[in-house]
Amino acid sequence: MNPTDRPRRLRTDGIRPVVSETSLDATDLMAPVFVDATTDERVAIESMPGHERVPVEEAVARVTEVQETGVEAVMVFGIPASKDPEGRRAWAEDGVVQEAVRRITRETDVYVATDVCMCEYTDHGHCGILERGAREDAHLTVDNDATLDHLARIARSHAAAGADMVAPSGMMDGMVGAIREELDATGHAECAIMSYAAKYESAFYGPFRDAADGAPAFGDRRHYQMDPANAREALREVRLDVEQGADVLMVKPALPYLDIVRRVRETFDHPVAAYNVSGEYAMLHAANEKGWLSLEETALESLLSIKRAGADLILTYFAEDVADHL
Ligand code: PBG
Description:
- There is one protein chain.
- By secondary structure, this protein is an alpha/beta fold.
- 35% of the residues lie in helices and 18% in strands.
- The protein has helices at residues 59-68, 96-107, 144-161, 175-185, 206-211, 232-243, 258-267, 278-289, 295-309, 319-325; strands at 29-36, 43-44, 52-54, 73-79, 111-116, 130-132, 140-142, 165-168, 192-199, 248-252, 272-276, 313-316.
- A hairpin with a 7-residue loop joins strand 2 (43-44) and strand 3.
- The mean pLDDT is 95.
- Residues 115, 117, 119, 127, 169-170, 205, 208-209, 214, 277-278 line the site of ligand PBG.
């Protein structure tokens, strides 16, 4: 029997790139950068090979390294000098992110997004301020509405320092609206919001929590981050953020949630971002170290898959390495 249709005809070297459906470009990528107020030299992040926490003085140098690979956007995370129950260093004018962003925007032309969350700044490591639940035996939980004021303040301080985009990652109800309102009222209408709209309670964040020193001191984040079992709920979460004025919609993590990336892509017209998180990075490195798979090829294939699923931009710790090969 001769096959009537032969897809293999289009797999020769000459035509393969011509009929390729998905492309990956350095300009699709955003690189996370960690700035640390507790150190005056660069500190390697053990669980994320190749990544470092840099002091404020090195923030511009770090960003310049990113730009040299062709990546034109960064996401700044901060590790503050001190922590307290309210996370006060998160909105300090001389806070670590504010200082770093001021320097970066003064001295480079990189596009600067900032992570707006409280877990690196609170001594309990949760993404907001705490309250005890209504029942007598209730556990401490994050007070949603009280946290909104803090998030708005943090976002405003980042915008005032020069951030082009703020990215709230705490999964508080109403966070995008609260931030949009504050930015508009304080002369920062140009500052965009990329919402971590569908952020799951994921074990793939493990290495990041070492990197940013933001692990919860007790309990977990199940009462604010999403249940991995839910997909329809993600669309509901994303819709709320669209209604509140989000400019870019993020799904996080990426690889275990490509179905969500695809559904968000198909349901909304906004740009979709996917966060290829620390665990997705660390597991490829670990397997590569064992000689079990090729880091370069699996990283590239991962990012291509995320784009194919529908992401317009990808936050990834592979940004620099992959951009160098594109
Ligand atoms: C802070 C935040 C986290 C990540 C990004 N912002 C950690 C968390 O929610 O525990 C994770 C990023 C990664 O794993 O690469 N809310």
